[in-house]
Amino acid sequence: MPVDFTVAIPTYNGEQRLPAILERLRSQTGIDCLNWEIIIIDNNSKDATAKVIQEYQANWHHPYPLRYGFEAQQGAAFARLRAVREAQGALIGFLDDDNLPNSDWIAAAYSFAQEHPKAGAFGGQIHGNLEGKPPENFERIQAFLAIREHGSTPHKFEPENIRLPPGAALVVRKQAWCDSVPERPRLSGKLPGIMVQGDDYEPLLYLHKAGWEIWYNPAMHTDHQIPHWRLERDYLLSISRGCGLATCQLRVINAKPWQVPIVITRTFLGNLRRVINYRIKYRQQLKTDVVTACEMEFHFGSMLSPLVYLRRSFQRHK
């Protein structure tokens, strides 16, 4: 029997987080008519992740299977690619191991896909469950932590302006992905010592390039568990800069070859202007206001992103 829906959970050292998300998935409602599965992609974990999954599998008495996959090359992008290869569902719903979906998440995703056949991918509402007090005006930078609350009306995202849903709690059509997304990502995601982001946007831009629409489905709700250390200044500055460092590489995906030099130049000069303006306008606040400093770091990273793109292009052609 064809599989309608695959829930794919990429995880790294997730032994403590996986039980909560599996309990949420075991409580899904409104899906009695669906044939679905869960697959956990162990992204080369160093803890007891594999053992935790084996214990669940040994006591798994549900009609939907719990499967295990392993991806040795670390990076969320590689884990997602492994999930796509292993998934049997026509639709794949990605959940990070710190995403806790509402009980109707799968039902809301499947229904939306049937109503929007041109949607190659869509994301929903992601609410922050914060372990600690966020900085003042945190909503200005909460997107850097994959918190997305765009209201109650469905709408298309704007890939041409790099306005897209995160890879967390994202649903894609497997065939659209396989037909459109290269097997080798340019952006791998966060790794030790490497904070360049954009790995979740990269496949969506390829889907857009192939003619698929990217949508927002407000009926899908997920809680993102955010520990206190992700609200600390150093981490917020690092991830803000990392998001900026991917800007140029993302913008060139849908650019024609003759447009690439223009994209590089505009990205550098536009963000150089923003960096200078921030230095002049917020000089004192940059030392005391975490949110303003994060915005500055994003623009600074975006200014440097053409250099990151050029260096990686040179390394690929060596």
Distance between the termini: 47 Å
Output the helix-strand order. Answer: EHEHEHEEHEEEHHEHHHHH
Q: What kind of oligomer do you see?
A: single chain
Strand content: 15-25%
Any idea of the CATH class of the largest domain?
Alpha Beta
Briefly note the CATH topology name of the largest domain.
Answer: Spore Coat Polysaccharide Biosynthesis Protein SpsA, Chain A
Indicate the mean pLDDT.
94
Please identify the structural class as seen in this structure: alpha/beta
Helix content: 40-55%
Name of the CATH architecture of the largest domain: Alpha-Beta Complex
Identify the overall geometry.
globular
Biggest β-sheet, characterized? 9 strands, mixed
**What is the total number of structural domains?**
2
Would you report the number of β strands?
9
Unreliable spans are none
CATH superfamily of the largest domain: Spore Coat Polysaccharide Biosynthesis Protein SpsA, Chain A
Q: Please give the radius of gyration in angstroms.
A: 20 Å
Number of helical runs? 11
